[in-house]
C-alpha cells in the first residue's frame, strides 16, 4: 500500500477518531469524519485509513495524483496529455492543482540549483517526455537510439520552453512534439500530500508513508531507521540512515528498471545533457523536509 503501519500511542485508532476535523489540503478543504484501522493490535500497530468528506481517503488522494500525473492515460484527457497535444500551438492549457503545484515547485528548484551551481542548470527538467519515449521505443525494438535520434529528442527537452503563467494555473509548450513527464517527482509530491492530511488532522500518529522509494516519516522523533539498498547487490543493504520526525528521503539507482538492448544492460535514469542513461553514480539518496524536494 501507499501508506504503512502506524503506532498510535498505545490506543486503537477507532478510539482516536475525531469527527468534524477539517484539513486544508492546498486549496481544497477536507473534512475528516472518521477513521478505520487494521493490523496487529497485539503489537500495537495499525494501518491508517482516514475517511474524509465526499468519501475521499488518503489512498484515493494518492490515486487522484497518480491519475493527474499519468502521461499514458488511456482517455488522453489528463492535464499532461492536453498539454502535449497543444504543444507548438501557442495556446495555454489550464492545469489542475496537483500538476500545477509540481511544475511550479520544479521551476523553483531549477532556479535554486542553477544559482548554487551554473552546471546544474537544466538538470531539474520536467519536459523529458520525448527522450523517455525514445528509450522506451529502444527497449521495445531492441535497438539503441542513434545520435541523430538523441539530438532530435534533446532539442524537445529544454525546460525553458515550458512556459508557466505565475498568476494563474496556465502552461504551454513552445515546440510541437514536446511533452511533460513527472515520473521523477510525482511520487514525492503524493507522499507530501498524504503527510499533510495526517499531520493537519491532529491525530497522534507515528508512522512511515512509503511510495516505493519515496518515504516520509510521520512523528516519531529520532526513532526511524531507513535501509539503503546496495546498488551492486540489490538483495542486500549497504547501511541504514537514522531519520527524525517528519523527514523525507528518496533513493534512485541504476540497479532498478534495467532493460537489455543489443546485449547490453541499460537503466532508466536519463541524463538531460547527452540523452544517455546517467553514469555519474550507481545510487543517489536525498534527505529533505518535503517529499517533493526529495
**What is the first-to-last residue Cα distance?**
20 Å
Structural class: alpha+beta
What is the approximate shape? globular
Low-confidence stretches: 1-38, 44-48, 50-56
- Written as H for each helix and E for each strand, in order along the chain, the element string is EEEEHHEHHHEEHEEEEEEEE
Order of the strands making up the biggest sheet = 2-3-4-1-8-9-12-15
What portion of residues belong to β-strands?
Answer: 25-35%
Instruction: State mean pLDDT (0 to 100 scale).
Output: 79
Considering DSSP H and I runs of 4 or more, what fraction of the residues is helical?
Answer: 25-40%
Largest sheet: 8 strands, antiparallel
- Give me the count of strands: 15
Number of helices: 6
Tell me the Rg in angstroms.
Answer: 21 Å
Structure description:
This protein is an alpha+beta fold. Helices cover 26% and strands 29% of the residues. It has six helices and 15 strands. It has helices spanning 58-68, 79-85, 97-116, 129-141, 147-154, 186-201, and strands spanning 5-7, 21-25, 28-40, 45-52, 93-94, 162-165, 170-173, 206-210, 214-218, 224-230, 233-243, 248-253, 259-261, 264-266, 283-288. The strands form four sheets. An eight-stranded antiparallel sheet has the order 2-3-4-1-8-9-12-15, covered by helices on one side. A hairpin with a 4-residue loop joins strand 6 and strand 7 (170-173). The protein is globular, with a radius of gyration of 21 Å. The two termini are 20 Å apart.
Amino acid at each position: 500500500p501507499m501508506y504503512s503501519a502506524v503506532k498510535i500511542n498505545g490506543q486503537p485508532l477507532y478510539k482516536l477518531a475525531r469527527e468534524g476535523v477539517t484539513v486544508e489540503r492546498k486549496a481544497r478543504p477536507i473534512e475528516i469524519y472518521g477513521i478505520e484501522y487494521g493490523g496487529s493490535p497485539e503489537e500495537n500497530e495499525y494501518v491508517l485509513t482516514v475517511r474524509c468528506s465526499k468519501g475521499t481517503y488518503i489512498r484515493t488522494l494518492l490515486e487522484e495524483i497518480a491519475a493527474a500525473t499519468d502521461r499514458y492515460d488511456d482517455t488522453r484527457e489528463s492535464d499532461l496529455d492536453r498539454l502535449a497535444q497543444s504543444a507548438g500551438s501557442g495556446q495555454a492549457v489550464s492545469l489542475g492543482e496537483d500538476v500545477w503545484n509540481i511544475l511550479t515547485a520544479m521551476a523553483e528548484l531549477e532556479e535554486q540549483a542553477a544559482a548554487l551551481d551554473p552546471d546544474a542548470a537544466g538538470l531539474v527538467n520536467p519536459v523529458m517526455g520525448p527522450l523517455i519515449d525514445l528509450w522506451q521505443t529502444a527497449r521495445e525494438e531492441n535497438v539503441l537510439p542513434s545520435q541523430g535520434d538523441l539530438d532530435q529528442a534533446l532539442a524537445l527537452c529544454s525546460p525553458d520552453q515550458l512556459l508557466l503563467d505565475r498568476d494563474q494555473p496556465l502552461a504551454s509548450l513552445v515546440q510541437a512534439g514536446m511533452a511533460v513527464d513527472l515520473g521523477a517527482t510525482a511520487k514525492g509530491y503524493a507522499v507530501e500530500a498524504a503527510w499533510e492530511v495526517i499531520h493537519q488532522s491532529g491525530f497522534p500518529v507515528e508512522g512511515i508513508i512509503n511510495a516505493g522509494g519515496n518515504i516520509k516519516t510521520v512523528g516519531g522523533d529520532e526513532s526511524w531507521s531507513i535501509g539503503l539498498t546496495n546498488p551492486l547487490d540489490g538483495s542486500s543493504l549497504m547501511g541504514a540512515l537514522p531519520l527524525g520526525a517528519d523527514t523525507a528521503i528518496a533513493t534512485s539507482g541504476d540497479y532498478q528498471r534495467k532493460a537489455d538492448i543489443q546485449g547490453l544492460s541499460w537503466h532508466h535514469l536519463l541524463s538531460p545533457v547527452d540523452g544517455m542513461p546517467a553514469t555519474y553514480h550507481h545510487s543517489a539518496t536525498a534527505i529533505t523536509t518535503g517529499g517533493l524536494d526529495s
